[in-house]
Predict the structure.
Amino acid sequence: MNEPRIIVHCDLDAFYAAVETLHHGFDESIPLIIGSDPEGGRGRGIVSTCNYAARKFGIRSAMAISEAWRRCPAAPYGNGIYIKGSRGLYSRASRKVMQILQKPAEYFEQASIDEAYLDVTDFVSGDWDAAVALCRDLQDEIIKQIGLSASFGIAPNRILAKMSSEVNKPKGIFRILPDEVSLFFESRNIREVPGIGKKRATQLTEWGITSVDEMYGYGEIALARITGERFANWIMMVYEGKTSSEISPLRSRKSIGKEHTFDFDKEDHQLVLESLLSLVRRVMKSSREAGVSGRLAEVKIRYTGFETHTHGRSIPVAMDDDEVFTGLAKRLFANNAQQDRKIRLIGFRLGQLDTPKTKQTRLLNLFNEEE
Ligand SMILES: [Mg+2]
């Protein structure tokens, strides 16, 4: 029998805001909003991201910048700080962090600019206590060398590692041992599972299901009647700790993508975002029709003058859900689109595709879509 792998997920805490705070020497307790020019509340752009202090005002990534201003204006009306953000700073900081994280990993996968998966099984000789100590060392090293705080999750597979890095955020370390998986899920809110969005959660809540163990307790057959067979089967795998622990730096070349070129280069990023989300929905529809799901979301942005950038983020398990990927695309766009630059083309690509084993699943997908 195979020994379980020891998978670490590292996620930097409020990454963009932390980098700016460090660079400008801002006070962490003052709300910091990174995004386009708010123009005294009349700005048409969006929020890229914000720090924990701004989140207390309900400000979120991809929110209209005018809405952020309404909630927390800058001086003299309030104490918010609004800045445009500096791309170069983020990639430099990210590169340095990834260098530190790569060292102990036998397999390493950068999932986004501020997130990575590491398989450290061999480095710690299968010792789960040594894995905790290792994460503490990595955390210290990142603070000492770069000045950024990071959270770590340690678990036998990707999705559990990802969930555990969220548990004690910020500056957290949390471990799930292979025989503690069901304990971890006990009364844990279903929204904490990556891949369960607002809509899915509402649907389950209507049946009185709010925690992961309640969901499992329903049994696969009963759950399938509520959510569809594929989701029910997937949840059983998650609960039983049977989802993938494979960490791979290789990006699958198989992908499905769509792009749109505007008639006129667009200044209004809210409009570009809407167009992106409609592309995401079309891509997801095609993927369901083809009976495949994906683990990688990529947003392509071409600015006036043909300069093109691609920004990606991967999730722990392959999915074909609209809500999951619209959420990812929204954040990728908000975090990466260069404010105040006109956009010529927007695109979305679903990568690292997974094909279900049976044709039956495919028929089921087509069926679900018509509901
Ligand atoms: Mg992060």
